[in-house]
Design a protein that fits this description.
alpha+beta; 13-stranded antiparallel β-sheet; 15 strands
């Protein structure tokens, strides 16, 4: 194999690596104990689990100027043409709630949600200066939209939604970040009274100190095969240079 061929082959391996990097990335998360709970049974509990984040998901819509966050970009379930399913930035949520005074853990999950990105459009509490905002939401906050969370009930309250947002997030645009920030996050579990799904949730449990980390990527079998073939060809070329005929 000539030096030129080797260069092109190495370049091809780089392209494959970049393509692999653009694939959806699984993340794990683990929170500290809840210190604020409007559901008494969940005070002192913790949340842990996993989800998949896809930074290539398309923009679904933008909020209006009076929303909070205002003028934010929403990367939610985007219907693919021909009934081929959905493309979403936030999928495969699977979580467990445990600890505190719970006798047994509760599990919940959600197949797909959305990511909200705002460049200086979020105000909380009212009257404070607007800030940047990044939030992963399992389901819509209000009663409308596609609510597909697999939920649980405790103490007369039913889980309605899980939101994971990064405290102190800063951005100069409203694009999806290529990787999620390595800063502390807060989880909000939103509850409604059991049997009441007509309005927005009014009962919340906060979990601070949430650590969000990417799981180690596992190359596809085709990537392994290409790498092994490349190493073999490079070894063959080295032997030819050492023992010319």
């Amino acid at each position: 194999m000539s030096a030129r061929s080797i260069r092109f082959f190495v370049l091809g391996l780089g392209v494959v690596a970049l393509q692999a990097a653009a694939q959806p990335v699984p993340y794990t998360f683990s929170s500290g104990p809840s210190t604020f709970s409007m559901v008494p049974e969940l005070l002192g509990t913790s949340v842990s689990g996993s989800f998949v984040y896809d930074a290539t998901a398309p923009l679904t819509f933008t909020t209006g100027p009076t929303a909070n966050p205002a003028n934010a970009s929403i990367y939610g379930p985007f219907a693919l043409p021909g009934g081929a399913g959905f493309h979403s930035s936030y999928t495969a949520l699977s979580a467990t709630l445990s600890g505190g005074s719970l006798g047994a853990p509760f599990g919940f999950s959600d197949p797909r949600g959305s990511t909200i990105v705002s460049d200086g459009g979020f105000v909380s509490p009212p009257g404070t200066p607007p800030t940047d905002f990044l939030s992963l939401d399992a389901d819509p906050f209000g009663p409308t939209g596609n609510h597909n969370i697999t939920t649980f009930s405790v103490g007369g309250y039913t889980l309605w939604n899980m939101r994971l947002f990064f405290l102190g997030y800063q951005t100069s645009d409203q694009l999806l970040p290529e990787v999620l920030p390595g800063i502390p996050a807060r989880i909000s579990l939103d509850f409604v009274e059991t049997g009441n799904t007509a309005g927005s949730p009014l009962f919340f449990v906060f979990y601070d100190g949430t650590l969000v980390s990417p799981m180690a990527a596992i190359p596809e079998p085709e990537t392994y095969a290409l790498l092994l073939a490349g190493l073999g060809l490079l070894g063959f070329a080295a032997r030819r240079r050492k023992n010319p005929k």
